[in-house]
Each structure stands twice: as C-alpha cells, then as structure tokens.
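Two folds, back to back.
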Amino acid sequence: MKTFIRLTICLLTLSVYAQKDLEKELDTIVTVEQAEKFLVNKKSRKNKILIFNEEKHKTKLATKLLSTSVGSTEVVKSEFTTTHYKVIDKTDERHYRISYIFFDGNALDATQIVEYKNEIFKSYEEGISFDDLAKRYSMDKNAKRGGDSGWLKEGSLPVEVEEQAFNLDNKLDTLYTIRVPESNGFYIVLKTERIKKIKEIKVLKVIAK
C-alpha cells in the first residue's frame, strides 16, 4: 500500500513538472512559424493549429479566445488531459458572402449554359428563390446549401468571381454573370451580404496528459 502511494505521488509530481515545462515552452512561442516548428518537434496528431472565425465559430471557447489578445492562453482540464489553447495570430480582414450557381464548361456546351442562364434569370424575376434555383441547376458541391458561399476572404474563389464580389457597385439581391476562362467555368452570382471585416485567430492547441 505504501509503495502504491509513493508511486502515485511520484507520478503526480512528474506530471506537475511536465506541465510546468510545457507552459514554459509555450511561453516562448509568439509566432505562427514557431508554433509550426513546435508541432514538428512534438510529432503528435492531437496537437495542431486551429482557426477560429467570429462568424463561423460561436462556441464558448472560440468566443473567449477571440476576445483575448495574441499570446493569451486558455487551459481546459478534463479527467485525463489538460489542453492548452494559445492565440498565436489575429487578423481583421475583409470578407464577402455570395450565393452562386456554377456551370462546368468542360461538361456542358455553351448553348446549354446560355439556355440555363436564361431560365434562371426568368425564374428569379418571377419570384423563384435563388436557393431553389441553385439546388436545381448548380454543378458545385454547395448546391445543397442553395449556393451559399458562407463568409469568405480573398483567395477563396477564382479572382474573376472575387472582383465582382468585392465590387461595391454590385447591388445586393441582384444577379450577375461571370466567366472564368482559365477553368472554363461559368457563374451566376447573387450578392447576399455587404463587405464586412471579420476577426479571425490562429490558435495552437496542445494536449498534455
């Protein structure tokens, strides 16, 4: 019994020292590059860099981390593990949100695309929701969401699409068409939101036993 108690105390002591060593190591990490190097050295699938966006992530943890400054750490303890979340980067970038219907010009000929485009414009003017039209016509994987892109930042979609998404002259709830020559893609776009700056953070997640 005494041996068991000594062993338990020894393990607890080692765990405490390990935690302190980890905390000291995390204190030295102040950039994304250092966090990436840390992950390479640790070689654990559980440790990773997470991205939290104030529009997409509404959990208590995400909300708390988004309200803190770069360098802040949140520690979450469970029965078997202690998880450290350290904010290593914070940005406040322009985002856009649109809904779109996509046609692959490599799978459909131009005549068919024009025919579909005319049908869509006519149906939209007659009051058919864009959501329903996207589900019916779009060849993109987001068709099931009614063509909604969600909030995106620059570099997420082809440059031709983003030029129009960021164009302040394009009015909300108005359809416009875009052709992407490089991929032979064709888009019918509905601007659903005004340009908005959205806070986003990168968080180093480290799990310790």
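---
second:
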Amino acid sequence: MKALNLYGVEDIRCEETVMPTIVNPDDILIEVKATGICGSDSSRYKKLGPYIKGMTFGHEFSGVVAAVGADVSTVNKGDAVVGCPAIVCYECEYCERGEYARCNNLFVTGSYRPGSFAQYICLPESNVLPMDEAIGFEQGAMIEPSAVVAHGFYQSQIKPGDTVAIIGCGSIGLLAVQWAKIFGAAQIIAIDIDDNKLTLAQQFGADILINSHTQSLAQQKEQLFPSGVDLAVESAGAPQTINDALMLPQKGGEVILIGIPYADMVIERQYFEKILRNELNVIGSWNGISSPFPGKEWKVTLHYMATGDLNVKPMITTRVALDEGPEIFDKLVNHKEKYNKIMFIP
C-alpha cells in the first residue's frame, strides 16, 4: 500500500509500505478514506519530536472497516468508522483513575505506531467508533480535532449566557467558535489577524470579529466588552495570543489554553499580573480523551456532526493524493502557499 513515511527533518516520502494485518483478536483494519494534516504534524515535520525513523505519519482520519479480529463486536466489515489515534497504557496511576489525557505513556499514531497517512491503518477496537455515514468521511477526519476542543470546554466552568472570546481562528479556533455556541455562549468574539478566517468564524456563529493586526485589541475590548469576557480560549499557541488571552477575561474569569506552542513562551509582566490581580483560572487542556475511553468528547462530536451543529466542510479547502504529500508539506510548512485544512484522500 501507499503511505507517507517520515525519515527526518522535512524528509517525508510517499512509499510502497507493507500493509497492516490483523494480529490481535481485538484488532480492526480500516481502509482510510480521508485524513487531515494537523498543526502538530507540521511541527513534527519541521522540528521532529517523538517518532521512529520511517514511521507512517498522520492521526486525524476516518474510513471503512476492511477486516476485524475474532473478538470484535462493535463494528463489522464495511462500516463507516472514525479512529481515535491516542494510545494509552491503561497501567499508570492516571489511567487507573480514568484520566487518560494525563497518561504517563500517551502517544498518538504516527509517532511510535503507524499512522493514517496511508491506505490502511490498524487499531484496537477500543480506539474505533462507528460513524453515521451522513457525516461523510472528510468531516469524519475532523472528529479528532473537534474532540480536542470539546475536551478543553469540558475543563471549564462555561454556562449558558456566557461571553466567550476565541483567540486564533485556525481549525481549532473555528471549532471552538462552534463549541462555544453548543455550550450555550450568548456572545462569541473571534480574534485573528486574517480576515478570511474571521469571515469563516462569523459563518460559524461568531458575533464580534476583531482583526488584532489592524485594530487595537485593548481598545476594542474597552469599547465592546469593558468588563471582560467569562472565558477566553487560546487556540494559536503564539506568545502574543497567550498575552491577549490573559487580558480579556473579567475578574475571576477563565482562560483555556488549547493552542500548542512551537517556541518558548514569554508572558509580559502586565499580562502575567492579570492572572494574579484578576484571580484568573488558567486551564491547560491536552488531547481529547476521557473516561470511558475514548470519552464523551468523541460521542458528543459524533452527535453534533450528525445533527449539523458542528460543520467543518467550509474549513476543508484542499484535497490531495498521498503522492502529493512531500510537495504539500513543503508548501505548507515553509509558507510557500496558504491553506486552510488539507485532506489526503488515499
């Protein structure tokens, strides 16, 4: 089968690779129908991280069951499914408490286990969920990032009627706009430096749009929501957006940090003091899994994608074959072209 394998910094190759097979009685072999490039994939391609040389890359995907092990009872051959790429040990103290996102040995496919940038992938039954075919495979490949965002919201104290600010309107931020609405936010403020992304945020339910490159965020806050927001969601992982997130909440408000930083974070004193003087609750959120594994984040995402309350179709702008992988990664990571969400269609 074809697969995109990572060999080193900016060295990803489309190769003929041995097809995975059913080994354990709970194994499920899945034909990948759509698989997306995550920001963490881009970072690992550029700077590496946990991986084995030559490992098949990728972790956001959906597909069709091609074969099942003898003990599998939840899906059958031919079923549409989504795969949770998080592999946990079930043995550490956090796993024993059902806190799977905190597993001491957590990793995702594409690092120490073959991933989804391939025609086939094999996962244990616990990591595979049946998917309503009406969702579609491309949307199904966005269930994992959606679960990541939902996990963050579940860490917060958000309640109906709250005002929520989303800082950074990439895929994660645009999903956060939709989750804020689902969780009952009365007013959603979208903040980014790209007007195209802000337009998408408005399409997904944002009430106020702020381009922090052309507008003073501090002035906009003073004019539009002087008391501050109930919850700020940081989804870009950049030093400035971290600072912005700390500036926006009201006293006693919350900040959820979902964006993954790819460089050192420097918090300016005036913003750090907001944590202290405003007694902010700053929450780190990691991955998108909980108990019972893979967690409510996956079930609610499947539900709201089926109802249409979660809509990711407008985010997906580019569809390519696996053969185009090396070229598309080079263009994406080295900023040779601008993309929203890229999907491989194996």
